[in-house]
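> call design_seq(struct)
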């Protein structure tokens, strides 16, 4: 995409502005922080574990009480330019109570960091988890990844692409993924408002679009994915998720859609954190498979 008419530009800028889909995003973000705050004080939390050489390449580990536990790596959203791992500890308690070791990852933010750099960071973090999580009681053969919004995109970059050899991990390093409200084809963003901070050209958008790097049928790297989007999200955010799942399944790869009624682009994270929700139940089933 190179240019579009002004009225079309306005329409798609609104479609890709997630904050316009909710009445007050600040209230939901405040819920993230309120639910995360007590978790950050857990004595068993392993805080600020480096996964790379940069002082900002850090992750938090919440070890399960059982040995050889499944591992759930969560990547926060924020359109690649906001939020931190400390805002995302809200996803930990329900999973931890179910016997899961949870890892929450930080990454550098735009516009100071490029998308290529951020993708490299989450891949480095995943490689670190594979090589070291056994020390914390996690099973490196049962690593699952998840993320919301920008985090959903980044988790998508972990289940697609031929990146494994460069990071010294097996192709099956990720057994499964839970992708919440992600963007999987970044080409439309090159001419829209988000590119004011993303600064992508067409080549960058293509190499960082999970939609165009889906493993072939029968690939050893292709685990099962769960894909979902909030009921009250924009048409384009929903299309991105449904198109990605359709393309994944067209390769005869395992994947399911999870309904999340009554949710929006932001509180879908709180739904994952709710042990009584269908999304949590589907996630736990995936982790235990």
């Amino acid at each position: 995409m190179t240019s579009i008419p002004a009225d079309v530009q306005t329409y798609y800028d609104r479609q890709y502005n997630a904050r316009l889909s909710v009445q007050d995003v600040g209230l939901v973000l405040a819920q993230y922080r309120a639910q995360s705050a007590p978790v950050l004080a857990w004595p068993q939390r392993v805080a600020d574990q480096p996964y790379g050489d940069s002082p900002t390449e850090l992750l938090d580990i919440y070890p399960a009480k059982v040995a050889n536990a499944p591992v759930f790596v969560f990547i926060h959203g924020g359109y690649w330019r906001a939020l931190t791992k400390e805002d995302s500890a809200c996803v930990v308690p329900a999973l931890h109570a179910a016997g899961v070791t949870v890892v929450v990852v930080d990454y550098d933010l735009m516009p100071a960091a490029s998308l290529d750099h951020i993708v490299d960071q989450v891949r480095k973090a995943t490689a670190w988890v594979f090589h070291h999580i056994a020390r914390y009681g996690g099973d490196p053969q049962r690593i699952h990844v998840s993320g919301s919004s920008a985090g959903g995109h980044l988790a998508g970059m972990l289940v697609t692409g031929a990146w494994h050899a460069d990071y010294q991990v097996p192709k099956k390093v990720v057994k499964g993924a839970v992708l919440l409200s992600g963007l999987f084809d970044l080409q439309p963003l090159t001419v829209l408002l988000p590119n004011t901070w993303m600064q992508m050209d067409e080549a960058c958008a293509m190499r960082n679009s999970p939609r165009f790097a889906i493993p072939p049928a029968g690939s050893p790297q292709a685990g099962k994915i769960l894909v979902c989007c909030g009921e009250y999200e924009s048409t384009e955010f929903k299309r991105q998720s449904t198109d990605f799942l359709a393309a994944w399944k067209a390769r005869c790869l395992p994947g399911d859609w999870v309904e999340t009624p009554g949710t929006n682009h932001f509180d879908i994270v709180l739904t994952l954190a709710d042990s009584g929700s269908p999304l949590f139940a589907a996630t736990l089933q995936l982790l235990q498979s």
